[in-house]
Design a protein that fits this description.
The complex is a heterodimer of chains A (276) and B (345).
Chain A: E1 12-13, E2 16-17, H1 26-32, E3 33-36, H2 50-60, H3 65-78, H4 83-86, H5 96-108, E4 114-118, H6 126-143, E5 146-150, H7 154-160, E6 163-168, E7 171-177, H8 178-183, H9 188-196, H10 236-240, E8 256-257
Helix pairs in contact in A: 2-3, 2-5, 3-5
Chain B: H1 8-19, E1 23-33, E2 38-49, E3 54-58, H2 65-73, E4 80-88, E5 91-92, H3 98-104, E6 109-112, H4 116-119, H5 126-138, H6 142-155, H7 161-164, H8 174-185, E7 192-196, H9 204-221, E8 224-229, H10 232-238, E9 241-246, E10 249-255, H11 256-261, H12 266-274, H13 313-317, E11 322-326, E12 329-332
Parallel strand pairs in B: 3-8, 3-9, 6-7, 7-8
Antiparallel strand pairs in B: 1-2, 1-4, 4-5, 9-10, 10-12, 11-12
Helix pairs in contact in B: 5-6, 6-8, 8-9
Classes of the chains: A alpha/beta (276), B alpha/beta (345).
């Protein structure tokens, strides 16, 4: 979204570098990429009615008042709120789930192609979370949207995603199709993460600690592999060489992992061999 | 072993003391009275927790679970109106004076909060904060209290505990802070530990560490634990028994297996099936329609009726009966009554 300007690197949206002479401008990017935040209350202006919040961006982009009004009504219906009942209300008059529906309606108001959902359901109660997740899945089909879904909830991630990227201390450790990552995780961090998930069956309670310690400070990350300080399989090579994110000889397409154990000839004693 | 009877009445009282459950609530109600409205946070909660047992109160925000927990600690604001019986280890908390309540906090009942950063004092070291509690309650000198603080940090598996004693809360990670907070809660060896969403603010990998630690400490020290959470997975990991709370009432109580596998209340079913877990990809989630009622304007009848698929006319008119299905197994729903068919219409 360019809300924070990156120190280095380029952002490419749909083949166009953002903010480049031959690319796409930041304002054009924001028309196609919209965002829904975690805190439904903080992300709405408390002094604007629901209708004003949703129509703000379309009006800015030159939509006539009457057309904007019609769009608000249509969007509210899409997210399951009755326009007559909610249009004139203020954010504090709505529940958390309703406010998050308004935020989704507002994000859709410019007819974007990509929606960034940053922990958008994390603050909701479970019964309301299910409603909003169902809504998101339904809207994605209907408007042919692409979602970038950010979450710490492993079950929610598995439910909504096609493709998963696992991050640790600012680095991608593993990425691939959701089934591959959840059923056949290779990186020791992903494996520990999945094992830390509470079991819903009291007969299958966690007995052993999947992972000891806390994540180290990002101010002074460990050398080499950033996970090595908590990894039970770490060796000398993990401290000296940073593992690269790459496919393994046996991995499916669009799958990559950053671990020396999956790099033939990396110097790790348990590294896989070339033939596998 | 048996002491000779000096007076039958005191030995009977002593026996009652020994027999008393760790926690007993009878028809607890809590209202928060403000000028503009009265919020009915807890509406008649009765529960019994045996010594050495872990019970989880499972509920969504505003269900009254944290207020119930605070009632056990005697932590209520001045504008709260409380009725019913609250007893902890056979002592009646409701009728205690302010000083008496302060005296039981620590040695009898203590609490671990969700956010250790706000619960710990930022200007004192961890060691000083733990030692202070021990000095206040047991009247021992600072040197021995600090020694005890060190043992406590070791007990909750804080690495290099001696060095950590001198740390301020902001110098520790979230997981370490929560361990320090548990050490502090256990400083005076309480018989009942209350835990209010202690893992909610933590990473998944740290959450499971804290749950395993609490389970291990509970087994070692034999204390009773009341654990409050909104997370079904966490409840399944930690509890012996579960009580599900909705709109200030316990709607279903039973052993962890009974509540999770043989649930009877429609709200429990709804909550469990709307909680996303593995292998649900591609299917729409079952959900509970609508949202929890406003506690300032509770409807008459069953508070869940307006969201319930099985509600009949009677549900909207009168309170749901609290049906006892066995020892420690209750369901607050007319559908749990033995002869439900005669009740339809």
């Amino acid at each position: 979204m360019q809300l924070i300007v990156p120190d280095s690197g380029t952002l490419v949206y749909d083949g166009d570098p953002v903010g480049h002479m031959r690319g796409i401008s930041v304002s054009a990017l924001r028309r196609q990429v919209q965002m829904v935040f975690q805190d439904s209350f903080a992300s709405l202006n408390p002094r604007l009615t629901i209708a004003d919040s949703i129509s703000y961006a379309p009006r800015m982009h030159g939509l006539a008042r009457a057309d904007a009004e019609a769009r608000v009504q249509r969007l509210l219906r899409e997210v399951g709120l009755s326009p007559t009942q909610y249009m004139r209300r203020y954010p504090h008059e709505l529940s958390g789930g309703q406010r998050q529906r308004v935020n989704i309606a507002r994000a859709l108001a410019l007819e974007p192609k990509l929606l960034i959902l940053d922990e958008s359901v994390s603050a909701l109660d479970k019964s309301v979370e299910a409603q909003v997740l169902n809504l998101l899945v339904e809207l994605k089909e209907k408007f042919d949207l692409t979602y970038l879904f950010i979450s710490h909830d492993l079950n929610v991630v598995e439910f909504v995603s096609d493709h998963v990227m696992v991050m640790y201390l600012g680095k991608v450790v593993e990425t691939g199709p959701v089934d591959e990552v959840y059923r056949n995780a290779r990186h020791p961090y992903t494996r520990a993460l999945l094992k830390s998930k509470p079991s819903f069956d009291p007969a299958k309670r966690t007995r052993e600690l999947p992972l000891a310690g806390d994540p180290p400070s990002p101010l002074n990350p460990p050398s080499g592999c950033r996970f090595r300080t908590r990894c039970s399989l770490a060796e000398g090579v993990c401290a000296s060489v940073e593992p690269v994110l790459a496919a393994t000889p046996d991995s499916p397409p669009r799958y990559q992992v950053a671990c020396h154990m999956f790099r033939p000839g990396s110097g790790h004693t348990q590294a896989i061999s070339e033939g596998v | 072993m048996v002491q000779p009877n000096t007076s039958s009445s005191t030995s009977a009282a002593a026996a009652a003391q020994v027999e008393a459950p760790a926690v007993q609530l009878e028809d607890l109600t809590v209202e928060f009275v403000r000028r503009e409205r009265t919020v009915k946070a807890v509406n008649g909660v009765s529960l019994t927790l045996a010594r050495g047992e872990i019970m989880t109160i499972l509920g969504e925000s505003g269900s009254g679970k944290s207020v119930t927990l605070r009632a056990l600690m005697g932590l209520m604001p001045d504008y709260a109106r409380m009725t019913g019986k609250v007893s902890v280890m056979g002592r009646d908390v409701a009728s205690m004076t302010r000083d008496e309540r302060a005296a039981i906090r620590g040695p009898v009942v203590s609490m671990v909060f969700q956010e250790p950063m706000t619960a710990l004092d930022p200007v004192f070291t961890i060691g000083d904060q733990i030692a202070e509690i021990i000095m206040t309650h047991e009247g021992i000198d600072k040197r021995s209290a600090t020694k005890r603080a060190l043992e406590l940090l070791e007990m909750v598996s804080i690495p290099s505990a001696a060095r950590r004693l001198k740390n301020y809360p902001h110098e520790m990670s979230g997981g370490m802070r929560q361990r320090a907070m548990i050490a502090m809660a256990l400083a005076c060896r309480p018989s009942v530990l209350l835990a209010d969403e202690p893992t909610t603010a933590l990473d998944v990998t740290v959450q499971i560490q804290i749950l395993l630690l609490l389970r291990q400490l509970q087994a070692e020290l034999g204390m009773a634990v009341v654990f409050v959470t909104h997370d079904v997975g966490v409840a399944a990991e930690i509890s012996d028994r579960i009580s599900v709370m909705y709109a200030g009432r316990l709607v279903e109580t039973g052993s962890v297996t009974e509540v999770l596998a043989e649930r009877r209340h429609p709200y429990t079913s709804g909550l469990l099936s709307s909680t996303v877990h593995g292998g649900m990809r591609g299917k729409p989630l079952e959900m509970i329609r609508g949202q929890p009622p406003n506690l300032a304007t509770l409807p008459t009848g069953c508070a869940f009726a307006q969201r319930c698929d099985f509600a009949i006319e009677r549900c909207h008119k009168q309170d749901a009966p609290n049906v006892e299905l066995g020892v420690g197994r209750t369901v607050r729903c007319i559908r749990a009554e033995p002869d439900v068919r005669t009740l339809t219409n």
